[in-house]
Design a protein that fits this description.
2 domains; globular; 213 residues; four-stranded antiparallel beta sheet; single chain; 31% helix; six-stranded antiparallel beta sheet; alpha+beta
């Protein structure tokens, strides 16, 4: 690797997207597959708004063609991006009551008992941005399945977070997948949609798979 790569390496991060959302450009972009999703290394860049003059963070996908210029392998870029993400954007797991309380501006104790007693968790990162990538964090799904003492059903609520429940508490995969589709296309911007279906994590096989309706 050369000096140019050493300079950009600290700014690499990993994001999770559906493979379908990337279209033909996926073949030109560095990525690893996770079911029908793609974990992609991106470069964080600062952008200045023309209107306000304020800075904000943007991302640029890492192309395969950059490897030769930077004298580094695709595998090294992916490894560095994921390592930086785990370090700088550690996972954040909250029970559904805590998340709803924050959204509604109330205390978690005011959330209904039926919700408070459920084993439903919202998983993201501490920045609440591109948090669905926690699914690719080493040990994340193993630790969640141990915590819940069950296989996992993972609901891709957006590219920023996922919902995790026990498989034993799921009532019908067809209804769940229909609900996900409805929420995605009625409530989310297209760029925020991660997937139109849920996933199942088999704790014994340590395998994530699409939840078939």
């Amino acid at each position: 690797m050369n000096k140019a790569y050493e300079e950009i390496r600290p700014y690499l991060r990993a994001v999770l997207r559906s493979k379908a959302s990337q279209g033909d450009k996926l073949s030109e972009t560095i990525h690893t597959e996770l079911c029908d999703m793609a974990l992609l290394p991106v470069l964080r860049i600062k952008c200045e708004s023309i209107c306000s003059g304020q800075e904000s963070n943007g991302i640029a996908y890492m192309k395969k063609s950059a490897c030769e210029k930077l004298d580094v392998s695709e595998e090294q870029i992916m490894e560095d991006a994921l390592k930086n993400t785990v370090t700088n954007c550690p996972s954040n797991i909250e029970g559904l009551p805590e998340t709803l309380a924050k959204l509604c501006g109330v205390d978690a104790s005011e959330i209904g008992a039926d919700i408070a007693e459920s084993h439903v968790f919202v998983a993201t990162n501490v920045n609440y941005n591109n948090g669905a990538a926690v699914l690719a964090y080493p040990g994340f799904m193993e630790e969640m399945s141990e915590r819940l003492e069950d296989n996992l059903i993972i609901i891709p609520s957006s590219i920023h977070e996922v919902i995790v429940i026990r498989e034993s508490e799921m009532n019908g995969s067809a209804l769940l997948n229909e609900w996900i589709k409805d929420v995605n296309h009625c409530e989310l911007e297209p760029c925020d949609i991660l997937s139109d279906h849920a996933y199942r994590y088999d704790a014994a096989e340590r395998k994530l798979e699409v939840l078939i309706s």
